[in-house]
Amino acid sequence: MDWSGIMNDIYRFWGEIAQWLEQALHRFNTLWASFFRRACEILVGMGVPEQQCALVVYGILYLLATLLVLLLVWRLLRRKRRGAAKVPADVGEKAAGESAAAEPLSVVERMRRGLAKTHTALVGRIDGLFGGSAVDDAFLEELEEILITADFGVKTTTALVDAFKQRVAVERAQGVEQLRAILKQELLELMRLPVAELDVERQHPMVMMVIGVNGVGKTTTIGKLAQQYSKQGKKVVLGAADTFRAAAADQLSIWAERSGCDIIRHEEGSDPAAVAFDSAKAAVARDADILILDTAGRLHTKVNLMEEMKKIHRVLGREIDAAPHETLLVLDATTGQNALAQARQFCQAVKITGVIITKLDGTAKGGMAVAIATELGLPIRYIGVGEGVDDLRVFDPDLFVDALFENR
Ligand SMILES: Nc1nc2c(ncn2[C@@H]2O[C@H](COP(=O)(O)OP(=O)(O)O)[C@@H](O)[C@H]2O)c(=O)[nH]1
Ligand SMILES: [Mg+2]
Q: Ligand 1, atom 17: nearest CA belongs to which residue?
């Protein structure tokens, strides 16, 4: 390799650049000098003393440079503000569909959105009625019809309308606001049950068995619960006792992975009670806070299904004192009064301690939640108002009734 040739080339190249820079500097100096001279002439023409011309020229240039910088900063800030203004709109769109939205919705807002269909069916008609005629027989009949349409059930509707009628008479109530407040209060009275709240710290491990017919949302609900409890720092073990199809355990495994909790599963078709046994053993050995057991809801005959439930109950009780501590029945709100019939059948087989109502977001018949609480005397522990993890909520009757009746 010819090093001296290369070095010569570099020197020549560098010499050319230096020459070009020198020329550019020279040209700039000439330009600057003529600009400066011209500016001074103008300033003198305007009456500025000649000795102060340089000062004024530099002052003007300094001012211009400052203005330019300020303009740039202003433009940058404006662009940033516009960008920020766009974000909430995007977040809102996502949140409406999926709960993977960056900005979490408040509990009240989720409840409002989830119960929107029932709210529309109920409040528009009720306000129309309350704002119209006096409280007479025709009025009460129409109120009854509205409540039945929202699936409050005949028994609950009758009790509610009777209580409403009495209070209105005693208090001589009238006008939309007053009548609506009375209906809300009476509804809350019906829904408040004298039962303790679900307390997962009551036992260690706390065992929850989740039952219900096929497709109501058991596995999804367990997945959401696992994720919520794990987030709270609890150690959760899931038991895949729905051994009817491998896909059921696969579905639960995905949730377990997502929330970082353990899962006990056996092969497809194996004995669900054996899964319950292993799950209970594992929960104790691993010092878990909570064990949640998924079950199948699709055995060929009802008798089989109920026998299986009883067997799982017995197995759990033998392994962990007083387990299962909660037997939660999952009901699909979109099935309306049919869910009530299902609940009655399950109640005959096992001791149910609470209900989880799913898919309240998909129905205008949210009144069935009231019917469950009042007609079966079972506390509603959670409600599902959407498919996102945060759409499963601890049931709060006040919040529920507010979301149903509030003005939007
Ligand atoms: N819209 C809505 N869908 C739900 C809710 N809970 C569950 N689902 C859906 O219901 C379907 C059945 O759920 P799955 O958990 O498999 O029911 P399982 O057979 O009882 O275990 C799934 O598509 C879930 O995404 C809810 O609260 N709202
Ligand atoms: Mg399932």
A: 217
| Cα(174) to centroid(ligand 2), Å | 49
Q: What is the DSSP string of 206-259?
A: EEEEEE-STTSSHHHHHHHHHHHHHHTT--EEEEEE--S-HHHHHHHHHHHHHH
β-partners of residue 332 are 358
- Asked whether 218 lines ligand 1 (CB < 6 A), one says yes
pLDDT tens digits, residue range 206-216? 999 999 998 99
pLDDT attached to residue 36: 85
**Continuous segment of H or E residues that includes residue 308:** helix 302-319
pLDDT digits (tens, 9 = 90+) for 225-235: 999 999 999 99
- Name, in order, each residue with C-beta under 8 angstroms of 254's C-beta and a sequence gap of 6 or more: 223
Is there an atom of ligand 1 within 6 Å of 386 CB?
Answer: yes
Pick the atom of ligand 1 nearest to 214's CA. 19
Ligand 1 center to residue 214 CA distance, Å? 10
Query: How many other CB atoms are found less than 10 A from the CB of residue 15?
Result: 10
Confidence check: pLDDT of 278 > 90 = yes
Distance CA 408, CA 399 (A): 15
Q: Which atom of ligand 1 is nearest to the CA of 220?
A: 15
The structure tokens listed for 331 are 């009901």
Is 186 a pocket residue for ligand 1 (Cβ < 6 Å)? no
Least confident of 33-37, 60-64, 192-196: 192-196
Closest by alpha carbon to 364, among 117, 161, 123? 117
Between the CA of 217 and the centroid of ligand 1 the distance, in Å, is 3
d(CA 183, CA 371): 15
Q: Report the alpha-carbon distance of residue 213 to residue 343 in Å, rounded.
A: 10
